[in-house]
Amino acid sequence: MDLTTVLGLLLGLAGLIGGYMWDGGHISSLIIPSAMLIVFAGTFGAVAISFPGSILATIPAALKIAFKQEKRDSASTIDEIVDMATIARREGVLALEQRAQEHTNPFLKDGLLMVVDGTDPELTRQILELEMDAIEHRIDHMSKIFEAGGGYAPTMGIIGTVMGLIHVLGNLENPSTLGPAIAVAFTATLYGVMSANLVYLPIASKIKLRGKELISEMELMLEGILALQAGENPQLIKKKLTSFLHDKSSKKPVEAGADHGEER
Description:
Blueprint: H1 3-22, H2 33-50, H3 53-56, H4 59-67, H5 74-91, H6 97-101, H7 106-116, H8 121-169, H9 178-229, H10 234-247, H11 251-263
Helix pairs in contact: 1-9, 2-8, 2-9, 4-9, 5-9, 5-10, 7-8, 7-9, 8-9, 9-10
Keywords: Cell membrane, Cell projection, Chemotaxis, Cilium, Flagellar rotation, Flagellum, Hydrogen ion transport, Ion transport, Membrane, Transmembrane, Transmembrane helix, Transport
Subcellular location: Cell membrane
GO cellular component, one term: plasma membrane
């Protein structure tokens, strides 16, 4: 379970509801079934129109990406590739066949099997890059589902509010009920804006981030597979792959510091 996603959602809800109740509001006044139906059903309907069924079917997988923390240990992956490179230099790539067959990572498994089978290095690169592109597009489609929800939800909230106001203005016989009725009407706008900015858009951002992390790890594996296939020195392979660990953590701060230095 990704605690940042769960805690962030709970903290956001607690802040919104707590702030409302702080000023004397009652939580029961925020629960309006008709507004919920208009906003959430309307949003899902708009999203369903926007995407084919094959993409909508990925929603459970998208939620799994957002709410489940996948354990990725790039350092261990590097050590494993270096170990296999050492075996390949000493005994030949055929010695990796059993290990490749039993590997749990499908991307690394496919790459190793192509190396064992003697596939041309350029063809190996093309096949693995196509697989990476397919995964990247799939994750991009997942994030766009929730981005679309974040775009439609506020509009559905406004539609719900307008519909509520139409109902209020059509029943003006009792002026004392106007205030509560208008407040109920505006609850739809609250649902729309709140769900967009606390659920849909943050989940879309989390899915994009997880996708970038996955593609980065696959790029590391790809370079390791090609280096292993080329028979490069295991220590040089380790040095090359270790650079992937520093690309995002070391280089950017250094560059930022250099920029400040130039400005001074």
